[in-house]
TrEMBL record, chains A, B:
Pfam families attached to this UniProt entry: MarR
Keyword Transport: no
SMART domains, per database record: HTH_MARR
Domain HTH marR-type: 28-161
Entry-linked InterPro entries: HTH_MarR-typ, MarR/SlyA-like, Tscrpt_reg_MarR-type_CS, WH-like_DNA-bd_sf, WH_DNA-bd_sf
Protein name: Transcriptional regulator, MarR family protein
Alphabetic keyword roster: DNA-binding, Transcription, Transcription regulation
Native species: Pseudarthrobacter polychromogenes
Source superkingdom: Bacteria
Length: 168, 168
DNA sequence: TGAATATACTAGGACATCCAATGGTTGGGC
DNA sequence: GCCCAACCATTGGATGTCCTAGTATATTCA
């Protein structure tokens, strides 16, 4: 999106907060803004790696999830819950994956309300290849200090549990 | 989006990675996925707080940025650089803010190519009120352990500098 | 000075996400 | 056995982001 800035814009924002009398919330504001920006950078890298495969991150996530199930199939509402996105996003993703021949829709054998998503052979192959690409190009050199990775997992895990993502 | 899951889906994904022989990248994968999910949760909170003001996060960011400048005005390309989003996203946001009477567009006095975004009185007022709401409802109780906030700022700051966001 | 290049904004298209509303399907309570 | 609340997937509309041009203005340099 352009050349590097001479100063960290988030540190700048933090200073603005402190100067306006909001010093008590300046640090959390900076942390939250940093998460927003970090997500943006990581998403761009992932999308760039997936582009040659004709996949977006949303569609990749669904494909990968299916590839990890025993039968390569999953009810749509289950996918929605596990990926933690709205049912409409699943509908959208399945529409496109189906049109690309990577998954099929089939009726649930006993519950007439639910639809099963099934991985095709082409879908399973693409899941493998795109995962290998992500591992090689993104996850193997994420840009974090190795020691920081565990910190992040712990801090964000606590946050997500706190936010009601999961229990335990 | 539903009820809490019984197990952490990201820890689950990490196990899948390890079982498939990708143990060397399983931890970074988990960290990156956790950042994605955390951003999603935080964004939802922010949007929910801004909704009563008729603002989205993208429009709020622009409004807040303008409110911190001396004159309450900024060239569009400057806004694009500081917020680190595509120029077209700025065009889109200014279109809507202008329609809402919160900003005005005016020609740059010396450079005929650039357009200045100017905060209106209504825009300045709304920036103040919506910032107060965010401080009260989101930033004052972010859901992180207080000690973790500084960790996050440091880890993500290093990552962003590494990614070329800024220098120094 | 005049052509080539660089910069700034906008227009249109693709994709993802959320929300609200709709139409089937199930299953528990009476 | 029947009815209605709960559940499931889809559709349509609004918003945001990025990409690919396209138009206009500035700047550079031969």
């Amino acid at each position: 999106m352009g050349t590097p800035l001479s100063r960290d814009p988030i540190a700048e924002a933090r200073r603005n907060w402190e100067e306006h009398g909001w010093a008590d919330v300046a640090a959390p504001m900076a942390a939250i803004t940093a998460i927003m920006r970090t997500q943006q950078i990581l998403l761009a890298r992932i999308e760039s790696t997936l582009k040659p495969f004709g996949l977006t991150f949303a569609r990749y996530e669904l494909l990968a999830l299916l590839s990890f199930t025993r039968k390569g199939s999953l009810p749509m509402n289950k996918a929605s819950a596990l990926l933690q996105v709205h049912p409409t996003s699943i509908t959208n993703a399945v529409d496109r994956l189906e049109r690309a021949g990577l998954v099929d829709r089939s009726p649930h054998p006993t519950d007439g309300r639910t639809t099963l998503i099934e991985l095709t052979t082409a879908g399973r192959t693409l899941a493998k290849r795109s995962t290998a690409a992500l591992n090689a190009e993104v996850f193997s050199a994420p840009g974090f200090d190795p020691g920081d990775v565990d910190h992040l997992i712990r801090i964000l895990g606590a946050f997500r549990r706190n936010a009601g993502d999961f229990e335990e």
